[in-house]
Every structure is written in structure tokens, then in C-alpha cells.
Amino acid sequence: MKSVVIFITTIALLLGSIGRTPTEIITEIFRSAGNNENGSESSSQLTEADIQAMNDNKAIIVRSNEGYVSTIVGRYCNKRINVIPGDNSTANEALDSLDRISGLLGLQGETKFFCSDMSRDGGGYTYIAYQQRAGQSTIFNATLHIVLDPEGYPCAVSSSCATGLRESVQEEILSKDEVLDIVMNLDDPDAHYYPEATSEATIWFSGTKTIENCYVLFKDNPEINDSFEAMRYISIYVSRDGKRLFWYLPTATLSVERDTSYYNNEEYFHGMEPATWSGTVDFLKGGKQDITVNVAYNPSDGLYYMMDLGRKIAIADCYDFMFRNTRLTFLTSKDNTWDDRDLAALYNYECAYDAYKAIGIKSPDGFETPILLLRKYCDKDRRGIENACYLSKFFGWYTFCYCDVVDISYDLDVVGHEYTHAVTESCILGSNYMNDAGAINESYSDVMGNIIETMYGRTDDSEWLVGEMSGDPARNMSNPTEYHQPDRIGGAYYVRNVEVPNQNFNDTGGVHINSGIPNLAAYLIYEAGMDLDTMFDLYYTSMQILTPANTYEDVYAALIYSARANGYDEYENIITEAFTKTCVVSDKTRAELEDEIPPSCGKAELKVKGYGHENELYRLIIYDLFGRPLSFAFPDKNGIISIALPEGKYLLEIQALNTASNEYGDYVFGSDKWETNMGNNAKAVTIFEGEKLRLPDV
Q1: How far apart, in whole angstroms, are the C-alpha atoms of residue 87 and residue 89?
Q2: Do residues 609 and 547 share a domain?
Q3: Domain boundary, last residue among 127, 162, 197
Q4: CATH number of the domain that 683 lies in?
Q5: How far apart are CA 333 and CA 148, in angstroms?
Q6: Residues 347 and 494 in one domain
């Protein structure tokens, strides 16, 4: 029997549902939770069959890619826990409930946890979040959630914990500055790096099943102009000897730790007098609308400030805050006149705030943390960035950016998308922005953004397009393949998980491609008759048992949990049908679904010879006959690149990158082989329905 040790810290963030209120937790070390009350180890472990028997065969049990259980929805322990607000014994007893399922969860050796959050919702469910420790370090993104029902019985558990605790050995340890120099020279010497943010982290690297101590470096995201989904920074996880690159991930935060420090930003709102602006604003395709927004009047200087005192939202200059030591230059007016773009941005963020406030969540974390909207989004040279984004929880503000060079901040679904990124980060306790988990992160923002936009009557869109009101939709949630996204696991354009995620090269495992799968499932739930208020509540509550290493199957389990906890049992079949149509719920394994040829499609497949070195990245780019890129595919762990495509003619290109040497290769498919892409020798290939086109190795 594996032992589990718990460490308790003070509560940091909200993990809750309707009417959730935090409970204080006192710092203390507890006994091993894997032991019984007498301190002896329990001898028997439950099986999945045992858990099903406890739940009349209605439990939902999901296994991770490593084969361990990642989510259980249903009772797995018959011991009632006495829930006492403010008493840390509740968190300790809840962890003890894992005694007989630690083997299923893959908890090995003396697995240590500290409790970071505890809260209770309006229905009496208690949510407890833990983070895993290795020695004196917290393992990045290793999170555990336990839910207790109103009677105190454990009713759900989810885990992204490290299941192999062997620590890697690095013979030479370089300083932070030395590793930064290595990465800058190989990666992008002209990029803007943040040396002061370089930090140490402990990660679980599934490729070698080891705990890795590494440095995390940060730089500006070079693709920040490409789409509103792009996050502000890139975090680079590299071994402390500078020889191995683990992850290359987008992030909204210049830190691997959550910002829990206290800043008294509420004082900026003190002394102000509430005021309003009312008038007509042109919302582009949404037309002219009469709106009222909350502003503030400062009697000390006689100026109006674009501040919402009730919601604690303020607008300030982006350049001053980001590049002049967080200087706050608030947007002011002598006569309460404002630019339409700023009015539209504030009004949209007020709507997003109110959508979550309606279920008891004030500000993204539920604790009324002030919100800062940074206008005229730009880079360090004051060049406008064509984007809107969630920046981070930064110096005590939830910070969001919007620009004046494109119009997407007029879109309420886009603003709701960005606002939800902050909510999701608060709930999940991490951001494992790669593969399934990254696609799920994007999908939740799409889903909640569209629900908010529709609830407020800001669109007549019946297809659930994303960004349509500014004239340039990015996705179709009801028909993902229209924008070259898969509508099922293994479907057309589906991207397999990658071993080495890299935003610039493989979209960190297709996070902006595979989001079509959970997006379609959400649309199908809506189409089947679920009203928007119920759906918003359903999806928010499901966030409470998601972890940073989610799969699509975990999302299905979380939604079933949410339906049961909120009394929406009549929707279980609708949820199951939606996730069955997208092949998330299936009798087939993920590998079987990825291997088959979906209807109306054929497949293109090739092998990368000698593939396996973590510094070597490859991608297959698929173009239409006009040279417009349609999709990407990347090697699996065996070096196989495989993608399903609708029947038709395509142009193909292979790009190769060595991240250690920065060597780059580029090849197009000619008449019968791969040729150096120097003379535009590409020839069209034909994909036939039901057939697999085996391309030459590269």
C-alpha cells in the first residue's frame, strides 16, 4: 500500500460553483493519508468492478494515457467525512479516502501533497484541491481534486499526478544565466526575453517517466499577432545542464507559480464617485446599440475615469503598464466622452463579468480581484498587436489586452473567450497547454464565450461561429470541418498527440485544431434542447474537477458529474450522445480510432526515418491547390505521420527543425519523392475515399 502525506497551506483561489464561498485552512503537517486510523496500511485495493458495484454500475471511470485512473465520478469510499468549515481535518480525511484506490491512481511510494484550495458550493458539495510535492518542490501541473457530496461522502476524484517519482540525474548544473544564453543563441536571439522571470521548476516528464528539475525561461510570443487565441508569452522548459528541451509552451503568466501575493489595488477605486455613460455604440456587424456603461468621477482632479467601481474594472494604457514598470496611466476624460472601441471593450467585459456573477463568481477567481483592461495592445516598440488576449494575473490584477488595429474586441464571444481563460486557469490550478489538455482549454473558452454572446442577444448566429460579429470568424463549432478542424477523434484533420510540444512548429499538439472535437459536443448538447443558463452552469461546475492533464474523456466525465451534482440528471443521455458522436465515448481505443479511416475520407501517411530524438521536430503541411494551408500533421512516438483528409487533391510539404542546432529543412512532394523546396516542384496528390496513400519515407 502506498502512503500519502498531506501538507496544508492557506487557501489561495476559488474552486467552486454556484454561491461558492471559501473556507480557511490552517497550515499544518498531517499523518499519512494512505494509512488507516491506527497507522497501519490497508491491505486491499479496489478494482474498477468494485467501484461500479458501489454505484449500481453508474460510475464513470477514465484512465490516462499512462494507464492509471484520471477521473472517477461516483462513490469510491463509504466512510462519511465530517465537513467542518475552517477545520483542516476535512482536507486530511478526504485525502485518506484515497487509501484503497491509490493503486488505481498510480500513487507510488510516499506521495506527498499539500492542500491549496477548499470551498463549498450552494448545493453543499465540498471541493478540495491538492498539489503534489517532490522533496521540497511542487510538481508543475500535478493536481488532485476530491469532491465530497452534501452528506460528506467522497463522490468524485480527478488526478493529473506524477505516477513515476524517479528523479533524473544531470551531471552538470549550469546557472540560470548560462542556460538563458544557450537558449537565446539557439532559439531566437532577436526575441524579447525576460531574464528576471527565469525560475526553477519541477516537472513530471512522461517521455522518460521521471521527475525533472529544470529552468523555465520566458520570451514574447512571436505569433501573438496571428490569432486572438495566442497567449502573450512563451515558456521554455529546459534541463539545468542546458542540453534538453522539454516543453515550449504558450503561457499567460511570467511565472510557474500562481500570483497569490496581496496588492491593495482596491484603493484605486476609493474616493471615486459612480457615474455612467449612455449612448449609441456601433458594434460593427452587431449594428448600432444603445448601451450604458459604468464610469467614475474623481472630485479631486475633476476628471472622469473609465472605471467600473462595482465590478472593479479599470482601463489603462498597455505600453505604460507592460514596458514602464507597471505604470498605471488610467483612461480619463474631462467631459465623459469616450472612443467607441473603449466603450465596446468595457461593455463586453461587464457582460462577461455579469455572466459569471449570475452563478456567484465575481471576477475570474470569485474573490472580486480587480480587473485591468489594457488598451492599445502593443509590443515594446509601440507597434500595435492585432489581437485581444488574457495577459495574466499580474501584480494583483486580472489583466486583459485589446488593440486598436483590428476589431475583435467588439465581439462578445471573443471577450467571453478571453475572460474564460482566466476562469479556467483559476479552477484547474495550472495550464498544461498541450495536446488534449490545450485543446480542451481552448474549447471551454469557445463554449463559454458563445453562450455569453447568445445569452445577451448579441448574435443571431445559429451555427456557433467564433468571432463572426467582427466579420472574420475563426471556427464553426457546429461544423468544425468547415474550418479544417476534426469533428471526432480520428476524423478529418485530427492531430495526434505530440511528444515534444512546440507552439511555432506543432501548435503544441494541435490545440487550435483538435478543439473542434469538444466544441462540436457542446453544440450538440445545446442543439438537443439544453437552455443556455443550464449549459453555462453545467460547464462551469465541470471545471471544478478538471486537472491540467485532461483528456476529452475526462471532460465527458466532468460534465456527467456536473449534471448529477446540479440536479440535471435528465441531460445525462444528451451529454453521452454528444460525446458518442464525437467518438470520445466509444468501444474503440484511442489508437483504434486514430488508425481507422473516417467516412468520406482517405489518409495520407509516411514515416520519418530514424525519428526519436527529442530535439528533432517534423511536420507535414497540407495545402489546397491554390497553396492555401489547410492543416498540419506531426509524427507520433514511432515516427509515423498520419492524417485523414476529405477525398480530393492536395499539395504536401515537410518541414524539419532541430531545436538544438536550429538547422532547418524544407521539402515538397514531387512526382514520386520528397524534393528540396527550392524550385517549387510540388505535385498534387489525390486522396481517395476509404484508401490510405502511403507516401515515401523522409
Answers
A1: 5
A2: no
A3: 162
A4: 2.60.40
A5: 51
A6: no
- Alpha carbon of 628 to those of 468, 476, 480, 650: distances in Å? 21, 19, 18, 10
**DSSP classification of residue 126:** E
Apex 313 CA angle, 309 and 319, nearest 5: 135
What's the pTM?
A: 0.87
At 280, which CATH number?
Answer: 3.10.170.10
For the chain, the 3-state helix, strand and coil shares in percent, each to the nearest 5, are: 25, 30, 45
Do residues 140 and 185 both lie within one domain? no
Structural domain boundaries, residue 401: 265-429
- DSSP structure class, residue 41: B
CATH code where residue 514 lies: 1.10.390.10
* Continuous segment of H or E residues that includes residue 579: helix 572-581
How far apart CA 537 and CA 529 sit, in angstroms, is 15
Same domain, 672 and 641: yes
Domain boundary among 209, 230, 257: 257
Q: Which pLDDT score is estimated for 33?
A: 37
pLDDT in tens, 460-518: 889 999 988 877 788 999 999 999 999 999 999 999 988 777 777 888 889 999 999 99
275-299 residue pLDDT tens: 999 999 999 888 899 999 999 999 9
Q: Give residue 477's identity as a one-letter amino acid code.
A: M
Does the structure show a pLDDT above 90 at 643?
yes
Enumerate the β-bridge partners of residue 619: 655
Question: Mean of the pLDDT values across residues 426-434?
Answer: 80
> Model confidence over 523-551: pLDDT tens digits?
999 999 999 999 999 999 999 999 988 89
Side-chain half-sphere exposure of 642, counting CA atoms within 13 A: 22
325-344 residues labelled b (16+ CB within 10 A) or e (exposed): eeeeebbbeeeeebeebbbb
Tally of domains within the chain: 5
